[in-house]
């Protein structure tokens, strides 16, 4: 018995073609809903592919190969994610785990003070500052910058007074904080 002729439009798509179609479907899903709530496995895409190509085991295998080769990450509910790579999702999950016990602090209310220092001694200075009880009480954050060390404090006057024992800062009781800040930033 002769096999019926199937036009080229009914042949199974290539794996690459299936990958592109799956990406388009997931991208559209993400654009419309902000996340994927429909596609967890290769069989979830079969309705679309079977509407264009005759259902067959080879079509199913081709779609499964395409899903496998895309190596899409899955969210916590098992749905495919198109907007991130597996590495990005893994990094986000790791960051979320590390941040779970952390606290976010808005530094707008803090005053940044810069200690200008050469690059070769900044790391050691930061180490010493971080282990100084008085600095720990006065500073909320200490960070290295391209030309020194930045200290974030709620008590700039007290910090400047403490640091004046170590830095060549002339503190005059009649000076205001703004004047001291101006002198130390020059």
Would you give an account of this structure?
It is built from 8 helices and 3 strands, in the order H-H-H-H-E-H-H-E-E-H-H. It is mainly alpha-helical. Mean pLDDT is 85; it is low at 1-8.
**What does the largest sheet look like?**
3 strands, antiparallel
Radius of gyration: 31 Å
Instruction: Give me the count of strands.
Output: 3
Number of distinct helices:
8
What is the approximate shape? rod-shaped
Instruction: Note the beta-strand portion.
Output: 5-15%
Give unreliable regions as ranges.
1-8
What order do the strands of the largest sheet run in, or round the barrel if closed? 1-3-2
The topology string of helices and strands comes to HHHHEHHEEHH
Binned, the helix content reads 40-55%
- Secondary-structure content class: mainly alpha
Distance N to C terminus: 95 Å
Overall pLDDT score: 85
Features:
186 residues; three-stranded antiparallel sheet; 48% helix; single chain; 8 helices; rod-shaped; 3 strands
Short description:
This protein has 186 residues and is mostly helical.
Write the layout of secondary structure elements.
Blueprint: H1 15-33, H2 46-52, H3 57-70, H4 86-99, E1 111-116, H5 119-130, H6 133-138, E2 139-145, E3 148-153, H7 156-163, H8 177-185
Antiparallel strand pairs: 1-3, 2-3
Helix pairs in contact: 1-3
């Amino acid at each position: 018995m002769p096999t019926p002729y199937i036009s080229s439009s009914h042949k199974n798509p290539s794996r690459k073609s299936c990958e592109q179609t799956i990406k388009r479907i997931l991208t559209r899903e993400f654009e419309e809903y902000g996340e994927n709530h429909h596609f967890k496995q290769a069989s979830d895409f079969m309705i679309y592919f079977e509407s264009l190509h005759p259902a067959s085991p080879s079509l199913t295998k081709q779609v499964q190969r395409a899903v496998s080769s895309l190596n899409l990450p899955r969210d916590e509910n098992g749905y495919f994610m198109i907007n991130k790579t597996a590495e990005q999702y893994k990094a986000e999950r790791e960051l979320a785990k590390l941040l779970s016990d952390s606290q976010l602090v808005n530094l707008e209310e803090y005053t940044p003070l810069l200690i200008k220092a050469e690059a070769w001694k900044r790391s050691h200075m930061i180490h010493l500052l971080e282990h100084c009880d008085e600095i720990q009480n006065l500073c909320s954050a200490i960070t290295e910058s391209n030309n020194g060390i930045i200290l974030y404090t709620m008590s700039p006057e007290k910090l400047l007074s403490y640091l004046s024992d170590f830095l060549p800062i002339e503190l005059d009781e009649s000076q205001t904080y703004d004047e001291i800040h101006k002198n130390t930033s020059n």
